[in-house]
Amino acid sequence: MAEHDTQHSAALRAQILALVAQYHAASHPASHAFVPGVTPVPVSGRVYDASDMQHLVDAGLDFWLTTGRFAAEFERRFAQLMEARHAILVNSGSSANLLAVSALTSPSLGERALKPGDEVITVAAGFPTTVNPIFQNGLVPVFVDIELPSYGIDVAQLEAARSPRTRAIIIAHALGNPYDLRAVAAFAKQHGLWFIEDCCDAVGARFDGRSVGTYGDLATVSFYPAHHITMGEGGCVLTSSPKLKRIVESFRDWGRDCWCETGQSNTCGKRFEWQLGELPPCYDHKYIYSHIGYNLKLTDMQAAVGVAQLAHVEGFIAARRRNYAFLRAQLDNLSDVLEFATVHPEAEPSWFGFPMRVRESAGFGRAELVRFLESRQIATRVLFGGNLVRQPAYAGRDFRVVGELPKSDQVMQGTLWIGTWPGLTEPMLAWMVESLQAFCRANRPDARHVPTGL
């Protein structure tokens, strides 16, 4: 009877998943007519097919609502993709950054553990949740400037940023364009500093033939819908250190000392034989806590979508590169008014977006260009928080700055970016080019000169 029930439920599951594929085909037409100026051209979005929906429903039918079999599969396969030994899934890229920094405060790291008041070098131009974990752990950010037009760290400022309190570095690859990883990794190694790579925008990017994320002690990734692959929400921490993996998992899972996977018990065979701290002997190891942790796991339904997305990731990366190359080639004649990104000779970007900075001599400002593009339904974004030290959240906070941060201010004043994501169609890309060409043609300084009459 039990075998019959199992066969019947398996058959029902197969029918349900087949219906999901039919639903996707019926509810997602192959294409929609693009109407210039009417059809939205987003900067990012999710790209999925019937398989993604089937994976989501398959996990839902399991009704295993926390981390489970799909999470384990994703961690294994994503670690391989990123050339790391371990991937630890969490509920967002921001949580991944929080865990990466928090892990470095673990007492189990001995003298290398970060302590309140220690300094962490980062860049001023970027996303706030690269920096926020520094504050949240009682550490002190040391902001250095970026280079333009690469948007990567100005490595020449690293030595000026270092002090006797410097213990770590955390820097993001802006919009998927790798900075000089060799220089930063060498500096970290020379001075015994921890190095975290924020790769939230950079899945698929490489430097000197290696995947980003492999140069740091830890790396972080985001799976928000805007990113290279998505789970809706989600992120992960990457490391090749078994010790750091264990620490990150502890901080993610309430700070517990136990290393059992979710839903497992007594894998060590000594669950009731521990005595740690001032706890009584034989205290249940599942409820012994060695860190001040969080609960930052994600659901298996999200992980199931991630597993399906892995089938698309190489195509997604190729599409982003192809879209970027098209925009760059078609807009090259605007270089006198728009400054486009440069790439390190050893870097292979995996473009999150297409950045450009309105030159001071352009004859127009970013606000005018943004208004024009948005009026044509072409979505734009600034480079996240701009110069973060100008943000109200950091007023009165304890941090240190190297120099005047002029390039970060230039980004704050003049940089915007548009999309490169795989959902952009050829008509959308052509409309983006036509719109930028039209605006710049009409607003260049020479175009605005109107000769006086007699």
Give structural attributes:
disordered C terminus, 4-stranded antiparallel beta sheet, 15 strands, 3 domains, Aspartate Aminotransferase, domain 1, 8-stranded mixed beta sheet, Aspartate Aminotransferase, domain 2, 454 residues, alpha/beta
Please outline the helices and strands.
Elements: H1 2-27, H2 50-62, H3 69-81, E1 86-90, H4 93-103, E2 119-123, H5 128-136, E3 140-144, H6 158-161, E4 166-172, H7 181-190, E5 194-198, E6 206-207, E7 210-211, E8 218-222, E9 235-239, H8 242-252, H9 300-310, H10 313-330, E10 338-340, E11 347-348, E12 353-358, H11 366-375, E13 381-382, E14 400-401, H12 406-414, E15 415-419, H13 426-443, H14 445-448
Parallel strand pairs: 2-3, 2-4, 3-14, 4-5, 5-8
Antiparallel strand pairs: 1-9, 6-7, 6-11, 8-9, 10-12, 12-15, 13-15
* Structure class: alpha/beta
Average of per-residue pLDDT values: 95
Whole-number tally of structural domains: 3
Overall CATH architecture of the largest domain: 3-Layer(aba) Sandwich
Helix content: 25-40%
Broad shape: flat
Say what the CATH topology of the largest domain is: Aspartate Aminotransferase, domain 2
Largest sheet: 8 strands, mixed
Instruction: Classify the oligomer.
Output: single chain
Extract low-pLDDT stretches.
Answer: 450-454
The CATH superfamily name of the largest domain is Type I PLP-dependent aspartate aminotransferase-like (Major domain)
Strands across the major sheet, in which order?
Answer: 1-9-8-5-4-2-3-14
Terminus-to-terminus distance: 101 Å
Radius of gyration: 25 Å
CATH class of the largest domain: Alpha Beta
Task: Please report the total strand number as a whole number.
Answer: 15
The helix/strand order is: HHHEHEHEHEHEEEEEHHHEEEHEEHEHH
Q: Hey, roughly how much beta strand do the residues contain?
A: 5-15%
